[in-house]
Amino acid sequence: MIRLLGDFDLAEEALQDAFAAALEQWPTQGVPANPRAWLVSVGRFKGIDVIRRRAKVDTSLSAIVDTLESTSERAFESADEVRDDDLRLIFTCCHPALSAEARVALTLREVCGLTTEEIARCLLVSPTTLAQRIVRAKQKIREARIPYVVPSTNELAERLEGVLQVVYLVFNEGYSATFGDSVTRADLSAEAIRLGRLLQQLLPKPEVTGLLALMLLQESRRAARSSPHGDLVLLENQDRTLWNQDLIKEGQQLVQSALLSRQFGPYTLQATIAAVHSEATVASETDWAQIISLYDVLLRIHPSPVIELNRAVAVAMADGPTQGLEIIDAILGRGELDQYYLAHSARADLCRRLGQRTEAKRSYERALELTQQEPERRFLRARINDLNE
Amino acid sequence: MLLVYVDENSPARIADHTAKGCDGLAERLMENGQYVSGGILHPTCTATSVQLRDGQRLVTDGPFAETREQLAGYLLVAAEDLDEAISIASQHPVAKIGTIEIRPVKEIPSLPLHLNESD
Question: Which helix (H) or strand (E) holds B77?
């Protein structure tokens, strides 16, 4: 409908009119053979009606009516067409010309079909703020003419990266932010996985597969990630019988197929690391050597201090805390990650294992200063108390 | 409208180079029927700002705002949608050293400069 009318709001209004017409006609005249095509077709006429009404006020719009009316109606029911419309919608909602916040909100609203209230609750903002965000985004789409198209082949990779970013952002909103109402937050992860699946059907590129695998493998640990009191449980201490084996199996299969493509990127590599973890039934069986080499590849294609930090933790597990600590101190020594609480809590943990109590306490306290998330803060405070004893 | 911003004090801003690069782009745009108009501005030390407040005219030396990058030129193009405008902006030589801001121009039929896409 958006493609046919070229306007988000108009399309929404037209579709509502079409549904109203359906409510009137279907009970008496029966449901048409292809309800979707019927709705789109009626919606298109309703949309043209709306423009025509507006055209009485603004003559420049009458040209649009002519164009729309002359556009021959195509076979709306073809599966390809529906598929392409979904893809166009995703790429429009995730257009880089929109702010990251707007992309997330718009995708949840237009692609996932959540209500403004639901999205506001998930993202912990007021419904008014959220509604405004969406209105502004739609205004920009209209006035800056953000096209409703799937990008051309030479831009697809770059634009797809932006889409995957939005999907992973939505997932992480639901996965890592442990404050607030944890149930609605979990919904957000489920929504991201649904989006990932949709994207995987529409555009089965290796990184799309990799991201879906990564989300499934992370999601598989959800039940084990927090104690019944809502406290954080670290990977090595998790009760692995709580891991969801169905999700793990699906994730592992997706990782395999993404790796086979030999065109994978950072999402597939992160998913592979998660898959290696998922293979260990107890923490001590983890294949750290393989994880370190995966981090090495990841760092080559996607250099980042956060990945270096994760690699340092793996090194500490494989070769001992001293080796891991050396790397972390080197990263912090470069002045990077100084504001990142996980760098300090990882450092503290290694110092603690080495019996350096004062250093450990200092780093836990620094980490505590840097995070606002309540379960994390409880965890850090407990560690500091242990060291005080 | 592509607004071209660049740090005018940076050595990278070699006017000749930029002007030549612009010429190349302008020619290509003209061939494609996308060119409307464009120009390179003198540096902000030549700028004068005018404000009218309560009937009082206030003329001051300098640009409207002191920013890290300054408005150095503009290019008005006819683009079907934002993606087309982004594609043109990324071909602009200043995109490598400065910033190209894309702004849709409001269509006001009563103005002589009326961008009509169907032309």
Answer: strand B70-77
